[in-house]
User: Which sequence fits this backbone?
């Protein structure tokens, strides 16, 4: 039997095989932040022995291949034709930029049992590397694990994935009001598997499955491409703002308090985002510097006019309650607002959150790893590709799990202080 | 995703897609019993609503297609080259006969929710219908069940099959002395599935998997084709003997006692079998008229020179103990003898029997339905195609489960009496 999930050719075969928000953010960067030098870096959170499993030559071949890819005319037509969030959301100059874009070089080095991988170039081109690199590393790793198995054991991996998917769908079918999307591109088992999961889920639960973050799969299966923005935008904006403020102070100017710098950077991003995309993409990711900071400092019009917020770290129930309080503070009817949960979801958690918040606020779910990599591997596998430096300055993300904040320690402390977190707050981390 | 188990074309695509023993018996019939008129009939033991699930036109198309098939030169070469049971076991005149053979017509009629299906012609050609007809009906039925499922549920059926197969193989690997064969052609889920199971099992357990009864798959995967003979041979021989004896008596002759007729018919078959195939295929199927009758009446040289016996009904442990007693009676070293268990086996039962009889007598296992149709369907599905009439006379099989004996009731009673079963014995049936 020929395994229908077997790979033909390279892992990334189209530049659309990435998350939709890379393009919404990509245009945003292209419009407002062109030329900022940004470094993305691989962070191997769970210390997976990447280099023992993944052959360096193979990894380079996959990364090199992505650099040879270009957007085809049809792919650009698809982006141009995207109208679900507003007419002509992508401008011709941005599409022309994409047409000519070549991904920048990468820096790869084996260090012990893992790899150091870094991408450095102007933000408007380097940003795209994140998803391709993550998907490549994850898939090469899983393929290496498969190669250690017999053919039957390999078939049984897919069999496990299929029976688990069926069980999930059977459960979700019992909650017709619960809607969700695929957010699992970066952590998928493989492209073929995500393709299967997305096609199958869309067919089985057409009214509950809202779409996929993967643009290629959205195009292939006629689904809604899903996504708005990510941490990298406020992270870069904040780093730029701190640099500018520090320079003012260094030149003898008064400068602003750090808190005002951070609030200003965050609001600048939110304002420009709404200016560019309007209500269509008005879902705010609140946890870059902690959601407490966001809810305390975000302008009132955000609570009024934005469609909702996205929860991506910390305790999701506490988060939801805080969001409700935030809206109530301004007398906003929360039943017209939305929370997009997207952190470590599984069916049980989605159903739980759905029932907790039903009739209080709308919820929907961006389902990731548990949707696209649930085939029986129980190893912890947590890698990310994150903004590390902005024009040479460390970038910082605090998130709602402060214990996991990653950056230069001094810089983290500065952001924490600016965002108003005391050290006692800082230990609130996921159990 | 394209289902790799999906059918291309008709179910039976080669006349070798049948059990090996159809050819060993086929040559035997061709040599000794040509021209005997035999009727094979479908018996739907479990009352499955065949006609509600299987479209009559589709069934006819499959059956008609088998009648268009001929043995190819390569297939005849394969049979000619079979030397595992003795050199040139198939004679040129038999192979020539196969080359020109066309399967006889069938009689199909829908009656209520099921079908009546009958094949009537000289034994030497009608015998082949059994396996093709059973495999066709089973597969069409399973395909009808699959069509009532969503595509994901269909995928999950195969996924269940794969994970179960892996679990079985993991268990069997712990008992390296336990050997077995695939006997599941007639009751397989589908051709593609049996193909997968056989290829996979052969690769995973190369030293324990002895071969397959399916000649096409044995050829395809370079495995040992397995099989010797079946109930139809003594059944037809006995019916012929009773007819001849009745005629002698009708013409005023003395005739023989029924017991002597039955013993004579059974021994005639055994003698001729050994004459044709020698030691290579000397495995006796003992339960046609009950194994008690066999062990009581079989000639001593069978215990001495035949390799062993095959158990196909009744309690397998009791059977094994009876076989041990039988050999001991003649002072035969049972550790040089073999029992082939082939009735309703599963892994647990095989392991149990293996441990019970280890160091007492060799055992091996002809694994059927549980190997080739274990994909999560729990419906009882028991259909057989059996010899019903021989030159117009009812044929009888008693087996070691007398409650299940099938034939004309008067004829059954006659055979039971002839074989020495009292009515108290007759109720010994499987719990």
Assistant:
């Amino acid at each position: 039997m020929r395994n229908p999930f077997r790979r033909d050719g390279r892992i990334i075969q189209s530049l659309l095989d990435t998350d939709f928000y890379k393009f919404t953010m990509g245009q945003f960067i292209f419009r407002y932040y062109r030329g900022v030098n940004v470094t993305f870096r691989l962070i191997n959170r769970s210390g997976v022995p990447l280099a023992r499993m993944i052959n360096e030559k193979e990894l380079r071949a996959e990364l090199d291949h992505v650099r040879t890819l270009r957007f085809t005319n049809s792919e650009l037509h698809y982006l141009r034709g995207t109208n679900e969030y507003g007419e002509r959301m992508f401008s011709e100059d941005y599409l022309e930029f994409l047409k000519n874009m070549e991904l920048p070089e990468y820096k790869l080095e084996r260090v012990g049992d893992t790899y150091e991988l870094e991408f450095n170039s102007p933000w408007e081109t380097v940003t795209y590397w994140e998803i391709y690199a993550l998907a490549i590393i994850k898939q090469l790793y899983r393929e290496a694990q498969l190669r250690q198995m017999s053919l039957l054991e390999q078939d049984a991996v897919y069999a496990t994935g299929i029976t688990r998917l069926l069980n999930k769908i059977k459960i979700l079918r019992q909650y017709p009001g619960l809607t969700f999307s695929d957010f699992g591109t970066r952590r998928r088992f493989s492209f073929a598997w995500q393709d299967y999961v997305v096609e199958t889920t869309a067919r089985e639960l057409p009214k509950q499955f809202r779409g996929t973050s993967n643009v290629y799969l959205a195009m292939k299966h006629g689904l809604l491409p899903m996504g708005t923005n990510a941490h990298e935008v406020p992270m870069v904006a904040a780093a730029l703002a701190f640099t500018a403020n520090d320079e003012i102070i260094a030149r003898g100017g008064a400068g602003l308090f750090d808190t005002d710098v951070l609030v200003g950077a965050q609001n600048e991003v939110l304002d420009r985002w709404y200016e560019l995309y309007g209500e269509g993409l008005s879902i705010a990711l609140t946890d870059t510097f902690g959601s407490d900071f966001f809810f305390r400092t975000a302008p009132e019009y955000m609570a009024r006019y934005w469609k909702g917020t996205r929860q991506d770290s910390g305790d999701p129930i506490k988060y939801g309650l805080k969001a409700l309080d935030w809206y109530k503070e301004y007398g906003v009817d929360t039943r017209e607002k939305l929370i997009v949960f997207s952190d470590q979801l599984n069916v049980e958690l989605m159903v739980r959150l759905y029932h907790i918040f039903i009739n209080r606020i709308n919820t929907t779910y961006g389902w990731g790893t548990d949707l696209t990599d649930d085939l029986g591997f129980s190893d912890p596998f947590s890698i990310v590709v994150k903004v590390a430096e902005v024009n040479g300055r460390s970038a910082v993300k605090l998130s709602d799990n402060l214990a996991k904040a990653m950056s230069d320690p001094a810089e983290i402390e500065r952001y924490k202080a600016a965002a108003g977190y005391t050290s006692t707050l800082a230990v609130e981390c996921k159990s």
Observations:
- Chain A touches chain B through 27 residues (CB under 8 Å).
- The first strand of chain A starts at residue 37 and ends at 44.
- Residues 151-172 of chain A form the longest helix (22 residues).
